[in-house]
Amino acid sequence: SNAVTTVIYTNSLKPTVAVVWSGIWNFLGLLTGGIGVAMGIVNLLPVETLTDSNTAHGMAMVFALLLSAIIWNFSTWYLAIPVSSSHTLIGSILGIGLAFYFINGKDSVNWGKAQDIGLSLLVSPIVGFALAIIVMFIFKRLIKNEIIYKEPIPGKTPPMWIRAILVTTCTLVSFVHGSNDGQKGVGLMMLILIGLVPGYFAIKSSQDITDTYKQMNHVTELVYRIDTTKLGEKEKHDVAKTKTRCANLLSILDKKSAVSEIDSVKRFEVRKDIILIAKTAEKVGLGENSSLSINEKDDLKATIQNAKKITDYVPQWVIILIALSLGGGTMIGWKRVVKTIGEKIGKQHMSYAQGASAEIVASVTIGMASVWSLPVSTTHTLTSGVAGAMVAKKGLKNLQPKTIKHIFMAWVLTLPATMIMSGGLFLLFRWLF
User: N or C terminus: which one in the chain shows less Cβ crowding within 10 Å?
Assistant: First the structure.
């Protein structure tokens, strides 16, 4: 919904055309955007540490995650408050991880990845606000035609060159939104599939097991080359456990050429072993105290990356399903959020230049985040860009304090609210199941 605000409120496109156009480009963005962000979501909550052979435990995780995210997203949409689905999803994931720690005393959150994601979510709105002011300044320097800085006349379309700028920026935001936000839905779907049906989705069904066996056998050889006398007690213990996992994994993969030859019950075990072996091998083998040479470290890193192709994957039908959902959601539920962004952030109607600058900033920021495989909030990036564009014209007095307060409160409260909700639901479902 964020992407179509500017073209609708500047009369550049009719609402029906705008939402369909945006939906199409969201779809294309997801189809061509890779799976880097999706895997970031999957790796944030290592499902192999939360679930086991008891399907009910996987169901507890899935239902808690989905219900908390849906309840918060729907509530804020109903109140017409632009809220970040990224914050919502990540808060729900962290809540489950913390609840699992409460039950078992085992750390089940990838805190390194959580820190990177948290920083990107925190910084992106600030960047959006600052860059929008800069882009407005550049516009004023380069474009002297005053019409671009005026409020649109109701019912009248702008000159073609302005329409071209606004439609282009809307297209870019829609495309990068699909390539970033859309992948979060893909990551969520993979968490669900791995948690509920690990026998089918724990590992990539089309993977050549012969290649995986060779890669993990080489990783095992490199792990055995690590001089444990230079390591601390915990690292020594981790290496010993990893050697046992390596032996177990290789025994499962030995003389297999296809995933279909692996017993369905063992496939989740294969996933778990590969991920945990890779985690320890990278931590110890690439660490400061590692006895491996530079070439061996590079070899280890590359081999692990290739071996994890069997675990870091997404079926094409999942991407298509999420892309359709993303496009459909844009076409159905756009009005409430569009009205807030278009009318209630600034005290004046959005000008052509303000709309273009906000979307240029959003498309660049989100596009760069997708390149770095970091999820960012399209909502907060674009709304902060609109706020920055309003401030660039008449200063802070040009903002509507009530709306800014609501958006800010949603930004602050989303993470703790969804963490508490998902964690509580997870504990409840684990108790019931």
Answer: C
- Enumerate residue ranges in the chain where pLDDT < 70: 46-54, 82, 106-110, 112-113, 117, 333-344, 346-348
Quickly count: other Cβ atoms within 10 Å of residue 67's Cβ: 16
pTM of the model: 0.76
Mean per-residue pLDDT of the chain: 83
pLDDT at position 246: 94
Distance CA 164, CA 185 (A): 31
> CA-CA distance, 357 to 118, in Å (whole number)?
25
Q: Residue 194: what pLDDT?
A: 85
Quote the tokens at residue 153: 């006349």
Q: In three state form, how does the secondary structure of the chain look?
A: CHHHHHHHHCCCCCHHHHHHHHHHHHHHHHHHCCCHHHHHHHHHCCHHHHCCCCHHHHHHHHHHHHHHHHHHHHHHHHCCCCCCHHHHHHHHHHHHHHHHHHHHCCCCCCHHHHHHHHHHHHHHHHHHHHHHHHHHHHHHHHCCCHHHHCCCCCCCCCCHHHHHHHHHHHHHHHHHHHHHHHHHHHHHHHHHHHHHCHHHHCCCCCCEHHHHHHHHHHHHHHHHHCCHHHCCHHHHHHHHHHHHHHHHHHHHHCCCCEHHHCCHHHHHHHHHHHHHHHHHHHHHHCCCCCCCCHHHHHHHHHHHHHHHHHCCCCCHHHHHHHHHHHHHHHHHCCHHHHHHHHHHCECCCCCHHHHHHHHHHHHHHHHHHHHCCCCCCHHHHHHHHHHHHHHHHHCHHHECHHHHHHHHHHHHHHHHHHHHHHHHHHHHHHHHC
